[in-house]
Amino acid sequence: MKKINLHIIQQAIFIFLIVLTPSLFTVGLDENFEFIKTYFLIFLFSLSILLYVFKSFYTKKNVKISFAGFFYLLFLCLYSFSTFFSTNFQTSFFGYFGRFSASLLFFITLVFYLISNRSLISKVSIDNIINYIILGSLLPLTYGFIQVLHFDFITWEILDNRVFSTFGQPNWYGSYLILILSICLFFYVEDKLNKYLPLFVLALLLLIQTQSISSLIALFITVSVYVVFRFRYVSKNRFLVIIFFTIVTLLLFGHNFYSRLEKQVLAYDEANTLITNDTGKIRLILLQSSLDQILHNKKIFTVGSGPETFAYSFIRPVELNNTSEWNVIFNKPHNFAAEEFFELGIGGFIFYSVMYVLFIYKLSFDRSSILGVSILTTSFFGWPTAYLYLILFLLFYKIYLLRKVFKFTFYVPIKLFFVSFIAVLSFLEVIYVISYVFYLSNPCLSLKILPEYQNYVYKCGEERGDIYYYNQAYLLNPNNKVISLLSGYRLLTYDPNRSEQIFRELLKKEPFNPIFIYHFGLSQEKLNRIHEALDYYKKANDMVPNYFEANKAVERMRGNLNTL
């Protein structure tokens, strides 16, 4: 009876992971979409692993690890090694604040979940997994359509008129929709299931309403790869129907998308001084600069800056001053290949490259491989969400599950150690989740729950107006440019000398950053160094044509000099 109950629980966990996760979101938190999904997955991963280990105490079965399992363990070693040498261990372990997937905690639980559930996964057919994915898409698709009709019952603080559904960002939702479109495509053109045609059209309509150019490019690449490798299985007439509905949908509902595309093209015109939408140009600059820094930094090339620490180690190039996002501190290069190379070193780049090649290799024999191809292709223009990581790793594990299975004895001391290890991780997970829930309403309580966590320290300082917390927040991780900038600004009134030191350190890292130059000018003004302040304000103003604060500061300083 115990065996039956445990098996049913594991099956339920497996289904919940795939079906429920895409629909999860909250209101009232600092991040309402990815946080809940990521930690819901981690919680169920941990619970499943603990159930597996507890069950193993009553059995003497060996642990079976397949080729994919070894591949993941190797990746986990790489991830742990990179975390050990990370620019900031806390960020690599828990994830970048506001971007919680891809933490070491997430991948430890994901990898061991897959390995411990090898038997369960081997018995579930690929088609069943795909059906669970489709079932889980009902709410994200419905909510997306509600947003298209402007009937959203929740007021989000998002000004852009782009659909994001339960994923919070249009590009994240776009990546998810390509997964759904890939499923609809092969069910319709290979299995000739007509019910997937309207679902394809709906998902395509929603994808267009995200206005995500990168997602549409990724869809075109994914479909092209699919047709090339599955050509003999594809019904030509049905594929023509897909093309027809795609063209009609674009013509009828693509006006906002065309407007966004036109702005992207105009961004490359040097004569155009008013740039409002140039994400393509920005991503190209980010990619080029990321690759340049990878090749010229031995640590980054070999072991990386550490998982999720791109924002701390990336040196902002001067070319970004001529874009609409000249005042942004980037936390991602918006290219998954470059990000993994930057954060994990050459090993991370090789891991995902091998995974991509193996998915394509299998595509001629297994159509479900296109789902892995679609996720990695869309990620080339961004990065995977927690749910897409789950599907990506699950599908690869399922496809290569039976390749070279090895058996290992799971001795009692190892079981005890493993239970303790997962229990500690689960405890840390609970602590982190509870602390995050109170972050906006009571950050000082969050700080008590999780001491010396940089974001909580700074936020507690804001609540109490205590300069000690601002200085402490900066010291906890000077490489965090966002917190450093905010802390330095807060210290201007109370301790301008300390503020000057912080801004000077930021300028050493990025001497061509107009934001840092302007703020250093503020510190000089506070210290009554009028001429120095004017020089830095002028420098910041000259770097960016529409830096209004710097322009006003220049006028203010000139007025002060005239009155002397």
What does this structure look like?
By secondary structure, the protein is mostly helical. Among the domains are: 442-473, no CATH class; 478-564, Alpha Horseshoe (Serine Threonine Protein Phosphatase 5, Tetratricopeptide repeat), CATH 1.25.40. Helix content is 69%, strand content 1%. It has 29 helices and two strands. The chain has helices at residues 2-19, 34-56, 67-84, 89-94, 104-116, 118-123, 126-136, 138-148, 170-189, 196-209, 213-229, 236-253, 255-266, 279-295, 298-302, 310-313, 336-344, 346-363, 369-379, 386-399, 412-437, 443-449, 454-464, 467-476, 481-494, 496-509, 514-526, 530-543, 548-563; strands spanning 63-65, 406-408. It has a two-stranded antiparallel sheet with strand order 1-2. Helix 11 (213-229) packs antiparallel against helix 19 and helix 22 (443-449) runs antiparallel to helix 23. The longest helix has 26 residues, at 412-437. The mean pLDDT is 90. This is O-antigen ligase-related domain-containing protein. The chain crosses the membrane at residues 12-29, 35-54, 66-85, 97-117, 129-151, 171-189, 196-227, 239-258, 341-361, 381-402, 414-439. Residues 199-352 form the O-antigen ligase-related domain.
| Residue share in helix | 55-70%
Number of helices: 29
Q: Give the name of the CATH architecture of the domain at 478-564.
A: Alpha Horseshoe
How do the strands line up in the largest sheet?
A: 1-2
Question: For the report, how would you describe the main beta sheet?
Answer: 2 strands, antiparallel
Estimate the global geometry from the Cα principal axes: globular
